[in-house]
Q: What sequence folds into this?
């Protein structure tokens, strides 16, 4: 299996069925550079405008509609020493009556060094605040169905701008395939991010990302899924949070039925006492919720 | 400071300004029995009907509107060997199109033994499923403002049926005081519960609960708060989840301003990278979301 | 059947099972004065504080849980020449990003004269704006179930602060009865109001209201309903609007089944092409949506 | 100004920047055939698959990003004698607990004749039900921004599947222009439809539609707008209804500021007492709400 090095020269602000920048085989590894959410690269040069310019698409040989594409994130190495966020929190995450007293939203810079991010000009009280490196892909996914081309500001069943902090190194993401070759895109790397992406950003910077792809023939899934060392999770992307949670829960129940032999009642008894929900983002046009289950709970079912 | 033993004979299905069952002093401890959500006690006898019969109210000397009441949960000991849940998942937590294929909702029984809960008649695949003891108070709080008396099925700024799994032993809960003496109620203990209470119950059983109360004079808060060994959190109770999250976030920002000197911008930079959200319940008439922050993050701010 | 004149001396800010101010018989008429949402009466004197002080409760002989109470609003006569509203629009009815540019919310006064309301100090562009009299009861209903006592700021299955502009003279409202005697309350009259009550008020003033009551024995309904000369409608009270609409639609389908012999499929075909929805209020803790159907459509079903 | 006759041979399931089927000048009229939501034409032959195959795009000379496109619907003539709907109501418009008792969703046929639609095989109670012709365009709009191509199942700032019953003959619709030539699409005609499109369809059939286009140079708008003989309205497309209503209200306030000189406070006083909201659809991936104002109210402002 090959290991490709990809230094992109074109970028996309929409996920769609575009000309592949690379054709790769099932099992191949790729080392790809990604620019930040506004298009700034490792040298701090702007390569493309917002929103979230994508590296890709990668055409994965053998991937057909109805299959799943597994993408294992091996490594995410920030490749410059500066990142940025916005503040204060977005107006939709506080009480409507509290919005009027928020200061104006502005971009701020962070120094990235030694596995820590520090505000370059911290406000009172945050002089000692350090955010540890916990890298993640904010936006990644495949070409959507029906020949659509959809902005990287939002997300759907095909992935996209989910901004989920568990989509980092060590995680395998699964996407439904809608187009021949899947057409995988990635970008919008975050040095770290809290739940909900409530300031509208993680700490945005450019990365070198290493990942492998694998085609799961005939495995049809409804929404993005993921797997870490400790957990499996299913993602729902929609507004409001209630609907995102419904999609995520329904997808998890479909997973438990297909791969663990649990019917709706059994899955309910299990999830009822063991499920965890993560609010991935509550900022983008579609919010994202993860329905998450411990692998140790699943392992114990075998007795 | 006294330690009171309380074996209740009257129960309430609403939180309101009722005759106290006990007057206690600031700092006192109470050992109180609670019946389960349908009113069954330690002997399996029904003492009161649903919803969530409360033990209380306890009149706390010195608590006045504008203060906060701190309730430290010291211990929750299940006092019978049987619990119950419902299944399958509630229709509002899956896609509307998936509701029609769910089986009928029915009550099921669990054996509680050796710190584990086991389904008495497990469906296929769950023969080995054990849910470990992680006790919590599903419904507790104080008399609401304006002389209201509100069903224990729901929740609000005064607490109530929040069904948050971190309201267990070791946690201190804080409630705004709206009535003289605060009038504290508790009940609806769960042997354990997943996020969201998505089957509509935790594992419901009766408990012996030990707690202490403490009046925080002049500390006015807007929503219930809590503190564990590792975290502080603020709760929002409302529908939809988006609004519950708004209340929780706004309350956390008020907390960070008042006790940690962080203005809206500083609090935003901190929460943006470090906040965690928990979906406490997505079943009751008001949903509950916790906005949670690690104490270690806060401690590091001091440098 | 008697006609009672009621000049209230006590007022309630919550709907609950309080001592009746009057016992009336099935079929009786009542002429009652109501104060405005902040408690100001016909003389402009404050008789009680907010929210929405109620006249009542009226104990209706013969009304028992499981019955419905029909209240026919015969007349609403504003009894002073001044009303008030708030402005600008509430922050929850515009885009979160637009909230910061709204001016501060303030109370403004209107002159009520000759069946028109005019701003006493109109902003530029509204010098000629006249709002015609279209009176309505913002808040009315019966004692809630379970012995609850609930703030007149909100609403539920028992009615309350629904702020629906079709609850005016000529309309018959129907409420489920939860307590012996129903315990009917009314108040919060509006000179007029747009859909949604988006400034948080109608034009608030005091009224003389005349109504008749009638007990519908054994007619159990789930939510408030109403009937005008031209329409029948069912109300849902909840957040978000989606859920209020679900309650209203479900209640309308129950009505069409019980009184018009239409099963779920037939009701769907009818409503699918003929239903109207009104956004009654999108401001209060519970929003209100009306599911409305033309009587002429229903009449034509008979052929 | 020309009058074009358009009998389409290609159809699109997405709104995007595709090759125009016709280039037309500012002021031109077009008579275009549209197929129904599943692609059946006037002869009952399937010309294309779902969702909502569009006739178009029409390139309008002179339309540039930042302009608005005005589309006046002159006429909609159903061109076959059969239509179809679905039933029962969609699961998302009734209480989640009521979904399980709904019958299975199935397509049903209607006879279209003499300006009336009649169910071909009516269920009990609907033998005499006739739905009068009130034609409307369910889905129409322009190419979205950013080179996106978006499914005709949903809607956005560019229009799309709004399913609003007031988008019929006599109405002028306004769309923001995002692509050179605007690239206007239309289709998904309904013989009639209730509010909310709660069965998931209007009465779907094919049409001959006549319309004129006009470019409004430099008039930048944020969301689709419309104008009938009696009303102006602004549309918001989003989930949940609350957010759709926020967009619609914000857009109406922008309109009142730009064209009627009303600042936020004046617009609030006016809308607070005079606004109407319509629930256009509560079925599609994005719901649609119209914020509507009477032209007579606006005319009276001039004194």
A:
């Amino acid at each position: 299996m090959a290991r490709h090095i990809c230094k992109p020269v074109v970028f996309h602000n929409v996920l769609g069925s575009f000309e592949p920048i690379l054709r790769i085989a099932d099992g191949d590894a790729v080392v790809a550079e990604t620019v930040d959410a506004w298009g700034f690269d490792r040298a701090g040069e702007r390569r493309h405008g917002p929103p979230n310019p994508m590296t890709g698409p990668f055409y994965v040989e053998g991937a057909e509609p109805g299959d799943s594409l597994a993408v294992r994130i091996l490594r995410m190495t920030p490749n410059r020493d500066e990142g940025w966020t916005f503040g204060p929190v977005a107006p939709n995450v506080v009480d409507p009556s509290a919005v009027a007293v928020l200061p104006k939203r502005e971009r701020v810079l962070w120094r990235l060094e030694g596995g820590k991010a520090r505000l370059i000009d911290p406000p009172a009280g945050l002089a000692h605040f350090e955010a540890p490196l916990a890298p993640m892909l904010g936006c990644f996914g495949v070409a959507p169905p029906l020949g659509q081309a959809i902005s990287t500001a939002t997300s759907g069943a095909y992935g996209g701008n989910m901004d989920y902090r568990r989509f980092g190194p060590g995680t395998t993401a699964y996407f439904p395939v809608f187009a021949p070759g899947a057409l995988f895109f990635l970008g919008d790397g975050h040095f770290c991010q809290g739940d909900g992406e409530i300031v509208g950003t993680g700490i945005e910077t450019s990365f070198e990302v290493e990942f492998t792809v694998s085609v799961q023939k005939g495995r049809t899934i409804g929404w993005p899924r993921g797997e870490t060392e400790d957990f499996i999770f299913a993602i729902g992307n929609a507004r409001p949070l209630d609907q995102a949670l419904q999609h995520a829960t329904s997808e998890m129940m479909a997973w438990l039925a297909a791969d663990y032999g649990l019917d709706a009642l059994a899955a309910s008894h299990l999830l009822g006492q063991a499920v965890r929900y993560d609010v991935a983002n509550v900022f983008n046009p579609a919010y994202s919720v993860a329905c998450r289950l411990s692998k140790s709970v699943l392992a114990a079912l075998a007795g």
User: Anything to note?
Assistant: The two ends of chain B are 37 Å apart (CA to CA).
